[in-house]
Amino acid sequence: MQEFQIVELIFSGLDQAWSSLEWWASVSFGLIALTHFAAKKLNLTIVIAVSVLYILFTIYSGFNVAISTGKATFYIQDMRALAESGAISSGGIGTMDQMRVLAPPAVMTMILCAAGTFLGTLAYLVFSYRRERTSS
Question: What is the DSSP string of the chain?
Fold first, then answer.
C-alpha cells in the first residue's frame, strides 16, 4: 500500500468520526429547540421516551466515533511502522505528528464538550417539563 493511500484512509476515518459527531450535535440542538418551543405539549411519557431515544442515539453515535477514530489510529500506527521499516517515506507520518489530530488534549476537549452537551440537553428537557408543570 502506498503512503498516499494510508493517508487517505486516515482522513476517511477522521471524516467519518466528524460526520457522526456533527449529526449527533445537530440532533442535540434540535432536541433543545423542540423542548423550548413545545414545552407546553410535553407529558411524562414523551419526556421519558425522548430521553431514552436520545440516550440510545448518543451511545450509537459514540460507538461510531470510537470505531472511526480507532481505524484512523490503526492506520497512523501502520504508517509509522512502515516508515520505520523504510518501506515508505516519513513525510506522511511527520505530517500526522504535526497535526496532532488524535492528541490527548484534543480528544479530552471533544469528550468534555460532548458530555456537557449530552447532560445539558437532558437537563433542559427535564427542566422544561418541570417548569411547565409547576407554572400550570
Answer: --HHHHHHHHHHHHHHHHHHHHHHHHHHHHHHHHHHHTGGG--HHHHHHHHHHHHHHHHHHHHHHHHHHHHHHHHHHHHHHHHHHTSS-SHHHHHHHHH-TT-HHHHHHHHHHHHHHHHHHHHHHHHHHHHHHHH-
